[in-house]
Amino acid sequence: MRMHRYGGLLSGKTAVRCFMAVVICIFGIWVVRLNQVSRTELTVRTGQSFEKAVVTEILADNLQENGTRVGEQKVKVQMLTGEKKGEELEITSSSGYLFGAACRPGMKVIVMQSVAGETVIASVYTQDREWAVYLFAFLYVAALCLIGGWQGFKGSLGLIFTFFSMLFIYLPLIYRGYSPFWTAVFLCFLTTAVTMYLIGGMTRKTAAATCGTVAGVVIAGASARLFSLASGITGYNISDIESLLTLWNTNGIQVGGLLFSGLLISALGAVMDVAMSISSALYEISAQNPELTGRELFLSGMHIGRDMMGTDSNTLILAFIGSNVSMLTLDYAYALPYQQVINSNNIGIAIMQGLAGSFGVVLSVPVTVGICTALYRSRR
């Protein structure tokens, strides 16, 4: 009997693994086909490229006695990539804060060059910081794995999957003209399901956390939509709408929904944290005391959730305030009138993002607790 049961368990695990392998293959094929899209050329870049180089000499500096830079530097660089690889070029570097760099010998830079026959027009675009990006990303993943152990490693896999889903699923779907709002909902469900599965496996706890997260994210989106109807703020009130309208004219991208789509993605992390914490805590409570009634389990979950609401709501609001510190500083410095500030589009959007995301966090608590109660009590 024991051997028969053991064999059945192995065959069940094998079936699950085969099913997951088939799903992964189908998903991979779909992603590859999804990214086979021809993008409309918005600007002419014929002959233009961005290449790596190293500064070998400063020919003319623009550093002033007071420490500021005016005009351009004239530098000599050795090209490391591209059509002029190995050659030395004399180019300029502007003193702007967005473009150019304060060059020094030995510094690696990105050169924007246009080559037409023997004619080369080039300038320093910015400092080469690719290595810094990859280094800090590696250090973060390493810290996550060292401190979190096996769970940290699985969490890093979920993080990597979420990042690549944004690049290779969300953006192609948006570019193909799909609704940004429902695309974001789909992305939230997909990344949440994969992350929860990696952390908790295929269990009731994972199912409850996934459903609670998706519910909270949708609630955040619905709250933002209601705020939009009440305040008159739409996705067309953002600062870079003029550039985005070009995409609407050329590709039919629904640019008006990008604001609410971004809000859902921003709220995902906090809502996922709340849902998983509640789901995990109630799972342990239910396992340790299986005689608890559904009402008692629900009340326990609400007590746990109430302790989490304040901190996670602060997390979202502070995140949106932090992303708008420059704008708030300018408003304060210019001593703008209250009515101008409270009714401006930028402030309204920031308030909508913070409050709608917090609505999603707060209301996801009873939803997740209710789902956990239903699933965990059904084991009887």
Integer count of domains: 2
Q: How do the helices and strands follow one another from N- to C-terminus?
A: HEEEEEHHHHHHHHH
Summed over residues and divided by their number, the pLDDT gives a mean of: 85
- Total count of helical runs of at least 4 residues: 10
Q: In CATH terms, what is the fold-level topology of the largest domain? A: Multidrug efflux transporter AcrB transmembrane fold
CATH architectural label of the largest domain: Up-down Bundle
Percent helix among the residues? 55-70%
Give the tally of β-strands. Answer: 5
Order of strands across the widest beta sheet? 3-2-1-4-5
Distance between the termini: 24 Å
CATH top level of the largest domain?
Answer: Mainly Alpha
Q: Biggest sheet, in brief?
A: 5 strands, antiparallel
What overall geometry do the principal axes of the alpha carbons give? globular
Beta-strand level of the residues, as a percent range? Answer: 5-15%
Query: What is Rg?
Result: 26 Å
What is the SS-derived class? alpha+beta
Enumerate the spans where pLDDT stays under 50 for 5 or more consecutive residues.
Answer: none
Give a short summary of the structure.
The chain has ten helices and five strands, in the order H-E-E-E-E-E-H-H-H-H-H-H-H-H-H.
